[in-house]
Amino acid sequence: MSGAAVELNGVSKVFGTGDAKVDAVAPLDLMLKAGQTTALVGPSGCGKSTVLRMIAGLEDPTTGTVQIGTETPKALARRGAVSMAFQDPSLLPWRTLHSNIALGLKLARKPSNPDQVNALIDLVGLSGFGDRRPAELSGGMRQRAAIARCLISEPELVLLDEPFGAVDAITRNRLNLELPPLWRDRGTTAVLVTHSVQEAVLLSDRILVLSPRPAAVVADITVDQTTIPVPNTPDFQRVCDDVSDALGAVAA
């Protein structure tokens, strides 16, 4: 299934009232293209995850609207066309890996399809582990399973909140290279929150650098995924430097 464009029109978020009021996100006007991966990077606490949650329909904007294709986020969620993956894989400990991934179909209100689950298990490199429970898997394997659960329903939109943040650096680098083609090759739209500049460049077609709270876009950087994402090359380092410079400017 092809992805859907994401449009934010004057979207802002304020938490609390009076002396306790926190301006989390300044009014944002953004168009995220269908089928592309967009990364949100910025200082800790700047509002990246709040933006992601508003796109998901888990938070209502204080002002403005979010539109995904022709629908609201909640309408998209009701028909199971949006999936999320978090830093914590959140696999159910009593379910097998196969059953955890199949849960993605149930949550999306789609019929059970064991063959589809098995095919995706093979695709994420977990062949032979379908009957294992989460406690029997490494951190990287659990994260692969979480991404598989996220993609099993063939969503139009995938939202990724630090999905590889809890695994070791070696595993994270491997997942950064191996897993993104799973949603890219399907033309799925993805929005990624990350603190890693290299991860943003590896995974994304576009990187939005956000200011400290209230979040506003201070840099909009395009990544040519056909030529740039080869680590340790001059072109790759140039884009990383552009992102780092933008982050350094907002931190100064």
From TrEMBL:
The keyword DNA-binding does not apply. Keywords: ATP-binding, Nucleotide-binding, Transport. It holds the Pfam family ABC_tran. GO terms for molecular function: ATP binding; ATP hydrolysis activity. The keyword Transcription regulation does not apply. Residues 6-237 form the ABC transporter domain. Belongs to the ABC transporter superfamily. This is Nitrate/sulfonate/bicarbonate ABC transporter ATP-binding protein. It comes from Litoreibacter roseus.
